[in-house]
Amino acid sequence: MELIPIIIYGIALLFIFCYSLIQIQLVVKYNRYKKLQKKRLGESTAVNFEPKVTIQLPLFNEKYVTERLIDCIAALDYPKDKLEIQVLDDSTDETQEITKAKVKEIRKAGIDIVYLHRTDRAGYKAGALAEGTKVAKGEFIAIFDADFLPEKDFVKQMVQPFTNEKVGMVQSRWEHINERYSMLTKLQAFGLDAHFSVEQGGRNAGHHFINFNGTAGIWRKAAIADAGGWQSDTLTEDLDLSYRAQLKGWEFRFLEEVGAPAELPAVMNALKTQQFRWNKGAAECVRKNLGAVLHSKDIDFGTKLNAIFHLTNSAVFISIVILALLSIPILSIKNTFEEYQVLFLLASAFLVTLPILALFYWTSMSQSYASKSKAFFHFIFLFPMFLAVSMGLSLHNAMAVLEGYLGKKSAFIRTPKFNLNNDKSKKWGTNVYLKRKINPITILEVALTLYFIGGILLGFYYGDFGLMPFHAMLVLGFGYVSFYSISHSFRTE
């Protein structure tokens, strides 16, 4: 009977190990990408491609940031006769009136901007984008969520790769206007920066599938239509359309050199909302798209392998939960049954996963600092903290993934926006979009904090300290996530 948890534990370890091998592969390809990037920069200045572009701004109850967004988009440095702005407002509150007034103001300045309002929200964001695309004047469509503030030359830079008629989508790199607001925003920036540099850049350099990240990218309208258009049967319509388009043969580009500043969720429950949608949607895309990837005769083995781990990367959270929950029974088995010692010795080889992941995130962070010593100083603090909080979010995210795999449907819940920057004096407690209730999962997170404290005590009891760093990180992670989930729910300033 004691062999069953060992086998399950081993499978979870193996999945995370294989995932880490893909990550190190991306590090190698990212370094290749940096060389290609320099070449592409030189080529992009050789032409001045200025096609007709429609910018879509999907909104739903965004009263705190809608004016900021529209003002920013209206100020873009692009020929006004070749730019159309669509404000796709599904709002049900005062955002409607605020947005209408701002659109009217911008229109008076001679800018081609239209306000489109739906009352039924059919298909949520995907539905709004689909409706806007039907009447879009542009050959190309740029999309920005409400919390983004692109630089003035964004469109000019991003349309240049479309001189290649095979290119169907170009994605920029996200930047962060409130990265230094709190520890929570710093950790999000740390993780997202790695995704947008090493992961997107590495896959793009390897000619593997990448994804449109839902915002701060530009689509060729013909590619959207050819792939079957925006569909709302997953919570990540961006990932879904990305795979359908690339399976049709459209090429994607990632431009790391083009940044798009945006606001990070500064509230734990807002982050959880975002994480739930991303992870459940990714799992839904596995159900919908993985079969087509595996059966495709037009993509090579390497691209298929990367696509498998790309689509299933949210399953890492299930593996983390399994490893965490079984770690205490495993500790007892290890110190009770001598016949299994060789298995635990073999399992120690998987510790190589940690330095691989460290290299993955270090590759990203080292790009952001002029001084490598300063980068290293920040890294040795942020990396363990990032891992701990990721572990703390694992139960919440694993539940989302399981719902996605099981086909349980749920509504598209937007992430609340706060209109924050790095000014720590700015408060968010009065935000009307915040949910003020404690989720049952939060109670389980508190219980798991106590459970892993028990794991630490059990380690002392056995005199076996091998799993103690893991249990300490779990205590820190689940304690951090549950504490701020509760405290943020009651903050009123």
What report would you give on this structure?
The protein is of the alpha/beta class and 493 residues long. It has two domains: 3-20 and 314-490, no CATH class; 52-267, Spore Coat Polysaccharide Biosynthesis Protein SpsA, Chain A, CATH 3.90.550.10. 57% of the residues lie in helices and 10% in strands. A seven-stranded mixed β-sheet has the order 3-2-1-4-6-5-7, with helices on both faces. It is globular. The chain starts with a helix and ends with a helix.
Summarize the SSE layout with pairings.
Elements: H1 3-44, E1 53-59, H2 66-74, E2 83-89, H3 95-108, E3 113-117, H4 124-135, E4 140-143, H5 154-158, E5 167-176, H6 183-205, E6 217-220, H7 221-226, H8 237-247, E7 251-262, H9 268-295, H10 301-311, H11 316-334, H12 341-347, H13 353-365, H14 372-392, H15 394-406, H16 440-462, H17 468-490
Parallel strand pairs: 1-2, 1-4, 2-3, 5-7
Antiparallel strand pairs: 4-6, 5-6
Helix pairs in contact: 1-6, 1-11, 1-13, 2-3, 6-13, 6-14, 8-9, 9-10, 9-15, 11-15, 11-16, 13-14, 14-17, 16-17
Q: How many helices?
A: 17
Structural class by sheet pairing and helices = alpha/beta
User: What is the CATH superfamily classification of the largest domain?
Assistant: Spore Coat Polysaccharide Biosynthesis Protein SpsA, Chain A
Shape: globular
CATH top level of the largest domain?
Answer: Alpha Beta
As laid out across the biggest beta sheet, the strand order is 3-2-1-4-6-5-7
- Give a count of the beta strands, DSSP E runs of length 2 or more: 7
* Percent of residues in beta strands: 5-15%
Classify the helix fraction into a percent range.
Answer: 55-70%
Integer tally of domains: 2
Query: Which regions are unreliable across 5 or more consecutive residues at pLDDT < 50?
Result: none
Distance between the termini: 53 Å
- CATH structural fold name of the largest domain: Spore Coat Polysaccharide Biosynthesis Protein SpsA, Chain A
CATH architecture label name of the largest domain: Alpha-Beta Complex
Mean pLDDT: 94
Largest sheet: 7 strands, mixed
Q: What is the H/E string?
A: HEHEHEHEHEHEHHEHHHHHHHHH
